[in-house]
Amino acid sequence: MLKEMITILMELPDCIWDSYAFSREPLNGRLTDGSRRKYARLAHQTGCAQAKETKTAFPQLTMEEIIRKLNIDLKIKNIQDDGNYIMFACYMEPNQILVYKKPIQQTIELLHQKGCENLISENQMQEILLAHELFHWYEYQKTNLPTSQKVLSLWKIGPLENKSRLVSLGEIAAMAFAKEMLGLSYSPYTLDILLLLTINLGLARELYNTILGLAGLPKCPDEVWEEF
User: Fold this and answer.
1) Residue numbers of the domain that contains 85
2) How many domains does the chain have?
3) What is the mean pLDDT, run by run of 10 residues, along the chain of 228 residues?
4) 215 inside domain
5) What is the helix (H) or strand (E) element at residue 73, kind and residue range?
6) Distance (Å, rounded) from C-alpha 75 to C-alpha 97?
7) What is the pLDDT of residue 84?
């Protein structure tokens, strides 16, 4: 059943994952369906454009090689030190990217146990995480990137206006960047659920059913989760 679950995730169009990203946006309540579509397009364009620029500058290099070429401090640890919030990788200003190996290795072991090892490799998972965090590094370095801008007007009184950034735009753009950089046929958001399966099954189940709901699909039957 795991293979079917992953296949469903990998076949979902980007617009479903955009809806997922906005559902986690603190300011989502201030957005309309039209503005969400507009901002999602902007985020995808930003991520893809930065990926094309990066591929031109560093042709045929792996994500790890690109990160080291850019003199970014890359740290690969086994497990997360602080367990307050589950992370698989993170970018820390101004110049550090951190990735955790154990969630990837545990997921690969699960895939092998279930005969799904051909769907995604350990190296590909790490490359996706690195690409995602590299985009956030670009956001910090390039303050003119659209996803770095305050785009949402919170209030306006005469000439005075208060605008805010949308966190979700950076996340959507980072996923678009990773997808373009690595030539993926599926959304990197797939890892949000996949890497959780061996860490927090309850949360993985909740997120998976949320995604199915956004796609207009029925929830996964309870008995399916018993195999994990």
Assistant:
1) 2-154+161-189
2) 1
3) 94 98 95 96 98 97 98 92 80 96 96 94 97 98 91 75 88 98 98 95 96 96 86
4) no
5) strand 73-77
6) 6
7) 66
pTM of the model: 0.94
Please indicate, yes or no, if residue 205 is contained in any of the structural domains: no
63-83 burial: b if 16+ Cβ within 10 Å, else e: bbebbeebebebeeeeebeee
Helices (H) and strands (E) in the chain, counts: 10, 5
Note whether residue 44 is domain-resident.
yes
Rg of the chain in Å (alpha carbons)? 18
- Helix axis angle, 122-141 relative to 101-113, nearest 10°? 150
Q: Rounded distance, CA 101 to CA 77, Å?
A: 6
Tell whether 143 is covered by a domain.
Answer: yes
Largest CA distance in the chain: 63
Q: CA-CA-CA-CA torsion for 92, 166, 26, 24, nearest 10 degrees? A: -80
Check residue 226 and give its pLDDT: 85
Rounded CA-CA distance 138/159 in Å is 32
CA distance 198 to 193: 10
Which two three-digit tokens encode residue 163? 């605008």
Structure tokens at 34: 């039209």
Bridge-partner residues for 99, per DSSP?
A: 76, 89
pLDDT for the residue 150: 86
